[in-house]
């Protein structure tokens, strides 16, 4: 068996048979990189909200929440996140920050 036989199944060494398939492959690579970048940025912003909540820092939590909401909404509008998943995340984070603000 070839050492690289499994790579063809995973799509790493995709050799297209038609120009349209080659274009789809180029588009897939660009979209995957863009989506990974957006997803990573959103996760980082959500983590900043969580760390601010754990340290009971109201101001930092509120500012981090604002930037996380913007990023989540933008990612949902681009189709990187599902709209309802982004809405659910925003709702849960907002509830936690509001609960912290009441303390």
Give your account of this protein's structure.
- Helix 2 packs antiparallel against helix 3, helix 2 packs parallel to helix 4 and helix 3 runs antiparallel to helix 4.
- This protein has one domain: Methane Monooxygenase Hydroxylase, Chain G, domain 1.
- Helices cover 81% and strands 0% of the residues.
- By secondary structure, it is mainly α.
Brief sketch in words of this structure:
With 103 residues, the protein is an all-alpha fold.
Count of domains: 1
Alpha carbon gap, first and last residue: 64 Å
Overall mean confidence score, pLDDT: 90
Helical run tally: 4
Which percent band covers the strand fraction? under 5%
Derived structural class? mainly alpha
Q: What is the name of the CATH architecture?
A: Up-down Bundle
Helix percent reads: over 70%
Biggest sheet layout:
none
Count all strands and give the number: 0
Shape: elongated
Structural key phrases:
mainly alpha, 81% helix, Methane Monooxygenase Hydroxylase, Chain G, domain 1, single chain, 103 residues
Secondary-structure topology with pairs:
Layout: H1 5-10, H2 19-54, H3 58-78, H4 83-102
Helix pairs in contact: 2-3, 2-4, 3-4
